[in-house]
Amino acid sequence: MRWDIFCKVIDNHGDLGVCWRLSRDLASRGHQVRLWVDDPSALAWMAPELGGPGHPGIEAVQWPTDEQPPAGGWPSPGEVVVEAFGCELPAGFVAGMQRSNPPRWINLEYLSAESYVERSHGLLSPVFSGPGAGLRKHFFYPGFTARTGGLLREPGLLNARDLAQADDATRAQRLAALGVPWQPGQRVVSVFCYPGAPVQALFTQLARLSTQTGGADTLVLLTPGAATAAVNAASQPPLPGLHLHALPYLAQPAFDTLLWACDLNIVRGEDSAVRALWAGRPHIWQIYPQDDGVHAGKLDAFMARWMAHWPPDLAHTTRALWHAWNGLLPAGSGSDGGLDAELAPLATLWGPATWAQWAAASRESCDELARQPDLVTQLLQFVTAPG
Ligand SMILES: Cc1cn([C@H]2C[C@H](O)[C@@H](COP(=O)(O)OP(=O)(O)O[C@H]3O[C@@H](C)[C@H](O)[C@@H](O)[C@H]3O)O2)c(=O)[nH]c1=O
Question: Please, which of 40, 125, 177, 204 could form a disulfide with 137 given CB 3.0 to 4.6 Å?
C-alpha cells in the first residue's frame, strides 16, 4: 500500500522519531511511504541513509503549506493517510482525499498506559466540515494491553537484540563500533534526559557505588543535549570509579545497539522509552514534563503496568528511584538530604542480588509485552478491515 504520514515537530525528537520508525517498519514490510515533515533537520543524524541513496520505500518530503503548495500541486493521497499526534493536515491534501474510494485516515496518538487508551483506541472521528467533510477518521492508540494498538516492534528486533547481548565479546565489538571503549567488568549506564534531571547527583551516586563495590568501575554514556551539557558544566574533578563518555547523536538503529549494550538505560519521552523496554534491561524513564502536571499520573500508570508482577520490595524501590529522577517525590517523603539522598534507592538496586532481581524482572516484563502483536501488524489489520 501507499502511505502518507504527516509529522509536525513540536519539540525535541519524539514526534519525528516515532514517525521515522513507523515509516521504516512499513517500508521493511513492502509498503511505500511518503513522510511529510515540517522540520526534517533531525533526520540528518536519525536517518543518515537518507543523505545517500535514500531508504528504499520511503520518501521524506518537506511539508509544504497551503499558501505554498508543492510545485505541480498536491499529489494524489495514498491508500492510508496517517496524521501523527493530531497534527492538522493541509487543506489542499485533504481535498484530494475526497474521492470515490477515500484513503483510510488514521490519527496516531501519543503513547500512554492510562486506562482511557483502551476506551479510545479505534474510535471513529467523523469529519463534519472543512475540506474533509464527510470523510471518516479513526483514532489509533499505541499502548501496553491487548485492547490497544500495541508498540512499535519491528520484525526481527528481539532476535537482533539477543544476538547483540549474547556475550562480552559481541558487546565489546558493538560498543567499539559506536566509538565506546569498554572494559569487561565495567557496568555501563546510558543517559538520555531532559534539562533538570539530577545528572550531577547521579554521577556522585554512581562514583560512590563503584568505589564501594570494590573495583567494578562504571562507564556512563551521555547522549547529546542535557546529559552532555551537565558534564560540560561540571567543574568537579574527575570522580574515582566513574568514566564519562559523551556520544554524538546516533542513527536510530545504532541507538538501539547502544541500549542493548548497557546494563542500565536512562531514557525519556516516548520512543526511546519504548526502545529501553525492548532492550530488556533495567531502565529509568524520565517522562516528558507537562505544565499542568498530568505527567505524574502517566508515569504512575506506566509503572503500575510495567512492575505489576515484580516482587513488592523491588517495585517499591524502583518506583522511588523513578520518582526521584523525575523530580516527583511524594509530598511528606521527608527527603531533605539533597539530590544524592533522593537517588538513594539506586544504592539498594545496585547491590548484586537486587541488581539480578531488577534485571530478571525487566526482562520478564519485556517478554510479556513482546507476546502482544506489534503496532504495525495491528495497524495493517485495522486499515485493511472494512471500516
Ligand atoms: C539520543 C538519540 C535519540 N535518538 C532517537 C530515539 C527517538 O526516536 C528520538 C527521541 O525521542 P523520544 O525518546 O520520544 O524523546 P524526546 O523527548 O526527544 O521526544 C518527545 O517526547 C514526546 C513524548 C513528546 O510528545 C515530544 O514532543 C517529544 O518531546 O530520538 C536517536 O535515534 N539517536 C540518538 O542518539
Answer: 125
Choose one of 8, 9, 13, 109 to mutate for the ligand 1 pocket test, by most ligand atoms within 8 angstroms of C-beta: 13
Coil, helix or strand at residue 137: strand
Nearest Cα to 121, choosing from 156, 91, 146? 146
Nearest CA to ligand 1 atom 28: 14
Distance between CA atoms of residues 209 and 334, nearest Å? 23
- Phi, psi dihedral angles at 279 (to 5 degrees): -65, -25
Q: How far is the CA of 193 from the centre of ligand 1 (A)?
A: 10
Residue 250 CA: nearest ligand 1 atom is: 35
Look at residues 350, 244, 359 and name the one whose alpha carbon lies nearest to residue 310. Answer: 359
At residue 218, what are phi and psi to the nearest 5 degrees?
-120, 135
Is the Cβ atom of 255 under 6 angstroms away from ligand 1?
Answer: yes
Cβ–ligand 1 contact at 244 (below 6 Å): no
Which single residue is written with the C-alpha cell 485516515? 105
* Ligand 1 pocket residue status of 249, Cβ below 6 Å: yes
> ipTM of the predicted structure?
0.96
CATH numbers and ranges of domains, the chain: 2-149 (3.40.50), 157-370 (3.40.50.2000)
Give residue-wise pLDDT tens across range 77-117: 999 999 999 999 999 999 999 999 999 999 999 999 999 99
- Provide the β-strand partners of residue 82: 5, 106
For the record, the C-alpha cell of 290 comes out as 507537562
